[in-house]
Amino acid sequence: MGLGSYLIYFAVLLILPLWAQFKLKKTYGKYSKVRSTSGHTGEQVARMILDQNGLYDVKVIESRGMLSDHYNPMKKTVALSSHNFHEASVAGTAVAAHEVGHAIQDAEDYSFLRLRHRLVPLVNISSNMSWVFIMIGFFAQLSGALLIGIVLLAMGVIFQIITLPVEFNASNRAMDQLLSANIIRNEEEPHAKKVLNAAAMTYVAATAVAVLELARLLLIYTSMNRS
What we know:
With 227 residues, the chain is mostly helical. It has one domain (3-226). Helix content is 74%, strand content 6%. It has seven helices and three strands, in the order ααβββααααα. The radius of gyration is 20 Å and the shape is elongated.
């Protein structure tokens, strides 16, 4: 790989995640200022969808920080950032429904979500250890150590890939719930989808970067063995 190829590669690695984050912040910022026609806050939207699906044991709580929204399967909580929790906006409605989508996945034992949960402990260890072996492989020119690092890193890449269907499925569930419960009107549907798609692109970008980095390391390993 020549200097020009390296520059292009690192430019992609830098620009792709930044573009995805910029797109999300811009889209979320725009539609967080658009009041939803239902007038329901994110907390109310989440609670309504949870109750309609019989998930009375799942709590809706406030989370600190911007876009800190998430579902915790261990504590059975849907955490919404302060603006989404308290305000009635198109963006907050979409995000709240998306996080509830994960709660519904959990209740239905959605296969990809279950697999991702099982991989978390393994990935936490492998992601920390992978670069230790990769650096040893680079500096000591030990292809065996590099290969171990690549295998450990690959576990994280698999985790990223599995995350994609989990996120897209949660977004699809969110839209279905919002429309079936008449929480959003037809004219709001494309706006809610833009918010969800922008959020999904951050996961796509992260996965693309992880796959590219893995491919680069595999090329280095192959080249090292040839030498």
